[in-house]
Amino acid sequence: MNATKNTFSLTRLGLLLKREYSVNWKQHVYRLLAIYGTFLVTLFLTMLTNDPYTPSAQTIHHFTGIVAFICGVVSMVYLSQMMKPMETKTSRINYLMLPATNAEKFVSRLLMATVGFWITAIVALALATASRYIFMPFMYVNPDLYHPIFGNVMAELFDFSCQALDIKGFIISDFEAGMFVVMLVIWGYTIYMLGGNIWYKNAFIKTVAAMTVITILGNIVLISLISAFGITKEDFTILLNTATGVFTVLTIVNIWLSYRLFRRAQVIRNLKNML
After folding, report:
1. Which of 103, 28, 73 lies closest to 188 in space, CA to CA?
2. Is the distance from CB of 214 to CB of 250 less than 8 angstroms?
3. Which residue of 128, 153, 226, 242 shows the fewest CB atoms closer than 10 Å?
């Protein structure tokens, strides 16, 4: 790599990503195989448990729902492990000595945990849907499932259109509900990113525990407020939009804290210097 400058360099960022894949290629292959195996088993069980006369669209819908759940969990694991190169003293020294800025290193790790995961998941999904032809001749399934299904699964998996929500009789527009759900999900992912920067070991388990506590307390507070004061449709809409704004701000704060914790990480980590 070239000598490090203070400016952000896409060239150095590309070299960091190339280094990650060249140094840890076995780990990435193992992850790809693990996700591929999970998708293939899921597809096999879905086709096995569904009635042969079940419409293929319904079978694909069931499979896509499970794939979405798997991708959600695994992507959170990826984010919680994004600081894996900082786990031990030796690996931390090697990573901090790389001729790149802190911003470039942070963005490279974030890209590996997000874009890198989705590339792996999509490749695994393509392999799994193609591999179904190995066992389908031995199963009695809907003949329509012999047609290519990868495009159908991808279209449904990345269908971000949101239906209007009916919560306690309040019909919420698809845009308002969609924005709230999107920001809630993004905020949840940044929590796991933040957890990965706070706890380098067992970050996913610790973050799940923290998120469980936050979710329980948040639901208790929300239900208590609604029960105590009552709420109209207009109030609920205002509350939903306010929550969207709050989660947007919290998302930005989580990203800023994650970068600050990463930037402050030293060869010998000191909790007093983490913030």
Report:
1. 73
2. no
3. 242
Cβ–Cβ < 8 Å for 267, 92: yes
Cβ atoms of 262 and 102 within 8 Å: the answer is yes
Q: 65 Cβ partners below 8 Å, 6+ apart?
A: none
In Å, how far from its chain's centre is CA 192? Answer: 9
> Residue with structure tokens 């195996």?
37
Instruction: Indicate the burial class of 125 (C-beta count within 10 angstroms; 0-12, 13-18, 19 or more).
Output: buried
Give the pLDDT confidence of 97-151 residue by residue, as tens digits: 888 888 888 898 889 888 999 999 999 999 999 998 888 888 887 788 888 888 8
Per-residue pLDDT for 58 more than 70?
yes
| Alpha-carbon gap, residue 150 to 153, rounded angstroms | 5
Pairing assessment for the beta strands 165-167 and 170-172 based on DSSP bridges: antiparallel
For tokens 């205002």, the residue is 238
Distance, CA of 67 to CA of 48 (rounded, Å): 16
User: pTM for this structure?
Assistant: 0.78
Average pLDDT value over all residues in the chain = 81
Whole-angstrom distance, CA of residue 238 vs CA of residue 5: 47
